[in-house]
Amino acid sequence: MVRTRFNQGWPRRGIALLWDAGILANLNTPEEVVSLRQFFTMTDDWPDDLPAADSDALVVAGLEGCLDVLDGEDARGWLETDLKEALLSFQDFYQGQAGLIFWMPSGRNRISMKGASEAYYWRHRHSGPEGLPIGRLLFSGAENEVERLLNTDDPNADYDGKHWAGLHHPRIS
């Protein structure tokens, strides 16, 4: 069963992939978004105050561009090792009390889910017809805990419809 999340409490906890510009604009200013390079630099010395969501979140841009330039196996390895290590470092430093949000403007058109398994894939030209198993690689296979972020308060909104704004996982291990 697909989990959905409607309220705005999600930015302050967990890991998110976000592609809704309206939500992003409410989280922080464009100047407060950090690049993927800056994010990796921060792993050596995480700041006490984060720039987004009233100092409770960090928005990072550049993940999709990085994935696009890597071939399939390199992208898998990089996600599973380098990025995953940085995600866990962020989560450990802030003791699960801060959100890490990856701005992925084309995510709505490039992330798909296999209904039977609830497995999420990133359409990647070097990874075959299904793409990169981004849910397994980023969320340690705990895709059944991933929530679809919906930019609406309508509890009957279609989770595949126009309000689908991103993915969120409360805590990876």
Report what the structure shows.
- The protein is of the alpha/beta class.
- 31% of the residues lie in helices and 22% in strands.
- It has six helices and nine strands.
- It has a seven-stranded mixed sheet, sandwiched between helices. A two-stranded antiparallel sheet has the order 6-7.
- The chain is globular, with a radius of gyration of 15 Å.
Short description:
The protein has 173 residues and is of the alpha/beta class. The protein is 31% helix and 22% strand. It has helices at residues 21-27, 36-42, 63-69, 72-93, 107-110, 134-139; strands at residues 3-5, 14-18, 34-35, 57-61, 99-103, 111-114, 119-122, 147-150, 164-169.
**Overall pLDDT score:** 89
The major beta sheet can be summarized as: 7 strands, mixed
Helix content: 25-40%
For the secondary structure, the number of strands is 9
The fraction of residues in strands falls at: 15-25%
What distance separates the N and C termini?
21 Å
Strand order of the largest sheet: 1-8-9-2-5-4-3
